[in-house]
Amino acid sequence: MVKKKGQMKIQQMSFLLIAVFIFFVLLGMIFVSYYIKNMKGKATELQEENAHLLVSKIANSPEFSCEMVYSSSEKTDCVDADKVMILKENIDKYSDFWGVKSIEIMKVYPIGANRECTNLTYPKCKSINLLNTSSSGYGVSNFVTLCRKEKYNGEIINKCELAKLIVRYEEIN
Amino acid sequence: MTKNKNKKVTMTKNKNKKGALEFSFSWIFAIIVGAFILFMAIFAIIKLIPLFNQGQDAETATAIGILLNPLESGFESATKSLIRTQVETRIYGDCIESTPSEYFGKQTIQISEKTYNKWSYTGMDIAIQNKYLFSEDYVEGKNFYIYSKSFDFPFKIADLLYLTSNSSSYCFIDAPERIKDEMKDSLNAPNVFFEVCPEESIRVCFSTGTNCDVVVRENQKSVRKNGEIVYYEGDALMYAAIFSSKKIYECQLTRLMKRAEQLSLIYKEKSDFLSQKVGCSSGITTNLILLRQGERNLESSSDLFSLVNEVEILEIKNSNEECRLW
Question: Is 60 exceeded by the pLDDT of residue B275?
Fold first, then answer.
């Protein structure tokens, strides 16, 4: 009888300890999952910040910038369309270079034919897609001048249009 | 009566013995299991805290990487940025050379923060492919000054970033006027001094000076630091050699040449494209091919001299062209 009572007490104690153990494990799991969620949120926030800062400066990077091709002094936020079309052909090596999902340059004014720029359609086209052709993901944009060389009445002229440079990033799930 | 008393005493003794046995066993059991749970909890915390710290350090490193974006220069030749941290911080900048999967190599940033007088473990690094940070193996402080200057060879290759902190100052002795003007006016560098050197500052001598930590020989285009010599072309690379260790300088130069090689290809193809499209015949295609070959074969800064001739020819030819390529 005494033996059984003792066993009962040990059992009670074991159950209590198991319950306490499970409680703390659950608490730990909730904390860790909250921490991971928080980290993912911060990672997405940082990606967004990166895209915002990048979009305002990428036009000045050597792969995009007009440099002194279209004027005697350097222009800011000016994209050389001819150079970007060459870059599009050699984009493989740049896949992770800017740390964003995709980069797109879309003509805003004057509105041209609504099609993607390829070797065949350029310059009578609307958008130049770099890195990734899908338009999924969050995008941040900046207005830029999109310039190219044209032949008009036998003369070589500089043609500049208004465009939007869109940088897309992905949300971290 | 006495018999009864004796019986009572015996019973109490027995009860005490039995109670003591029951009490102590369950308590021993509880203590053992409780201690196990406590041990597990403490073990988990000990394992998790560095992990959380690493997560925070990685977040700071990413934020620093992102904050370098505005240093991409526009029409200005050089810019400056200040990064402030809450606690004493070490920024470890490293450079990884080109691999087949990462053609342009990468810049890595690691952070270590001082908490309770101990530096946190730097486990996680953040990799950025489009940045070139020139620094010592690590830079320590609370205020970090990052200077940026465009590197043109002959077209713009990238903006070079020089990482310094408030805890280390540089003293330029007999520096040429253009360097003084750039450091004082364009960059307004608070930790770079001229002629009057603060104590414990790093002494950078241009041609003359005594007790020099760094010697810049403009005629040889070389920088001697810690008994090692590196070579440069242009002021952007000269600053890079002054502010960074030889290992980082040589590695970043190789990465820069990879980008230059790719840009040479883009300009060469642009030249062909313009020739077909608008009839702008370019006489610099051959020079671009030669430059590209030189950039591909560059192994160290001492090979830079072999490219200078082609760079100068390209600079002249491009500026005279009707259809400039850059």
Answer: yes
